[in-house]
Every structure is written in structure tokens, then in C-alpha cells.
Write a structure and sequence with these properties.
Number of strands: 2
Largest sheet: 2 strands, antiparallel
Shape: globular
Number of helices: 13
Oligomer: single chain
Strand order of the largest sheet: 1-2
Order of helices and strands: HHEEHHHHHHHHHHH
Strand content: under 5%
């Protein structure tokens, strides 16, 4: 054996010298246990500096990636559909992705506003779909079954067209305002790429939504079946939904106030410390009062 290996003092001195020479792996201001002396020293030994380099790489939030994937998959799946019910079903996946944009941006108000606007829009659209679908057969739900519906039933055709415009996000509908809020929240939180992707996928959705509008007003009727007149509850639901699409699109502050109220109820602010102290002191005050002034 070498002489220094048999001398513990010399081995400890060389170990201390080696640690001091490794400046790239020694970081001050972080206490550690000195391996040579067995005591605390203001140094931190980094055995794997590449792990710190990986931790500094930009990381995309999981919810943002889920929102992006949902918007892309939902719109691509809806492009190939010729059945209106399936088209709206697959497009609802994309609209869930738009709502997730607000979730990724941590903006509950924009999410609630978008979901409320989407509910009014889909109610208006499905009111017309149930009227047309009352005819027997799966063929009553194909896009060809809606050819000329705007001429035969102008009110039903107008309601369905307005629903399609709101789903695309065309002003002055509530769908436009809802998408504006969620995309604005994404930009404010630094998710600019997600907002741009949302705008691009909305442009893709305009292709299959406008196909429905073209079938309503720009094509001749190919079916001889008579579309039944909507009953009173169905007509009332369609009228209220269409009115809500326009009113909340032109005056979004009305619906925004409701969504903010719901948000406060779901996530109430912390109580005032002074109010909490007063509430905690009330039982003591009443106890003292009834102790000195008993009833009867």
C-alpha cells in the first residue's frame, strides 16, 4: 500500500484539497456535511449537474396540452361527419378543449361564461334537430335532410343557422364573446401558443358548421317528408335560446355578472379577521349577559 493510504491525516488533507478544486461542482450558500472533516460547511456538492439543466427547460402545463389535443381531435373528427348529430357530438369535444383553455389559464370566470354560452347555443340547435329528427329513419339526420329547411320553415332554419354562427364564434353571438374571454385569459397567462391554436381550430370548425348553413338556405329540398311544426314548449325553448345568444353576445356584462356570482359562491373569499373575532366573541358576550341577567 502507498504511504498516504496508511496515514489517515494525509488522506483527509488530500480529500479536502480535491473537493476545493472541484469549483464547478461546489456551490456556496448551501450548508452541507463536510465529508473530510465530518462537520458542517457552507458548500453544496452537486454530483449530477445535468439534472439541474433539465429542470430549467420550459415545461408545458398538462392541462394546456390536453386542451390542445382536445381541440385538434374534436375538429378533425367532426370534419368527416355527414350526420348532424354526430357532427355536433364530435364538435362538442373541441368545445370542451376551448373550455380547458380557460382552465389552463386559471380563469374560472371565462370558463363559466363559455360553458353558459355553449349551453344556450346547443339548446337552440338541438331544438331544431329534434323537430327534424321526429321523422322516421336515420336518414333524417344527414346533412341532405336539411336542404331547403330555411325555406320550408324559416324560423327553424334561422334558429339553427344562428346556433352554427355562435358555435363558430362569429360576432355578435355569445359564442364569440366566450371564445374571446378564454383566449384573452390564455394570452394574459403566457399561453399565447394555445390561444393561437384555438383561433386556428375555430377557423377549421367554420368549414363544417357553414356546410349546415349552406344546406339550410342554398340547396334545394331533396326529401319529400313533411317536417312537423314544433310544439309550444319546443318553440319557446328555441326562442329563448336564440334570444340569449344575441342578448348575452351584445351585452356580455349581464352573463358575466352571473358567472362571477357563481364563482364567488363556489370559491368564497376568506372572511375578514375582524368579523371572525366578533363572531367568536359573541357566544362569550351572550354568556356573560345571561349570567348577570338571568331570565325570569
Amino acid at each position: 500500500l502507498l504511504p498516504e493510504r496508511r496515514n489517515p491525516a494525509l488522506c483527509a488533507a488530500k480529500s479536502r484539497s480535491l473537493i476545493q478544486q472541484l469549483q464547478f461542482a461546489v456551490e456556496p450558500a448551501s450548508p452541507r456535511i463536510d465529508l473530510a472533516r465530518g462537520s458542517a460547511a457552507p458548500y453544496s456538492f452537486r454530483a449530477f449537474p445535468e439534472q439541474e439543466m433539465l429542470s430549467r427547460l420550459p415545461k408545458l402545463p398538462l392541462i394546456a396540452l390536453l386542451a390542445a389535443a382536445t381541440m385538434i381531435v374534436g375538429n378533425i373528427a367532426a370534419l368527416a361527419q355527414q350526420n348532424l348529430k354526430r357532427l355536433l357530438a364530435y364538435s362538442s369535444i373541441a368545445h370542451a378543449g376551448y373550455a380547458l383553455v380557460g382552465v389552463a389559464a386559471n380563469d374560472a370566470t371565462s370558463v363559466l361564461f363559455y360553458l353558459a354560452g355553449y349551453a344556450f347555443t346547443t339548446l337552440a340547435g338541438f331544438t331544431v334537430i329534434t323537430a327534424v329528427g321526429s321523422r322516421e329513419g336515420e336518414e333524417s339526420q344527414t346533412l341532405d335532410a336539411y336542404n331547403g329547411l330555411g325555406r320550408q320553415k324559416p324560423l327553424l332554419g334561422a334558429a339553427l343557422a344562428i346556433a352554427m354562427f355562435s358555435l363558430i364564434g362569429i360576432p355578435p353571438t355569445v359564442g364569440f364573446v366566450g371564445k374571446y374571454f378564454v383566449f384573452q385569459a390564455a394570452v394574459a397567462s403566457g399561453l399565447v401558443w394555445l390561444a393561437v391554436l384555438g383561433v386556428l381550430t375555430s377557423a377549421v370548425s367554420a368549414y363544417y358548421y357553414l356546410k349546415v348553413v349552406m344546406a339550410l338556405f342554398m340547396r334545394e329540398t331533396t326529401s319529400e317528408a313533411v317536417i312537423p311544426t314544433a310544439n309550444a314548449p319546443r318553440s319557446l325553448a328555441a326562442a329563448l335560446s336564440v334570444a340569449a345568444v344575441f342578448v348575452f353576445g351584445a351585452l356580455p356584462a349581464l352573463l358575466l355578472g352571473v358567472t362571477m356570482w357563481v364563482q364567488q359562491k363556489l370559491n368564497p373569499p376568506p372572511p375578514d379577521p375582524m368579523q371572525a373575532k366578533i363572531l367568536m366573541a359573541l357566544p362569550f358576550v351572550f354568556g356573560v349577559f345571561f349570567a348577570f341577567f338571568p331570565s325570569g
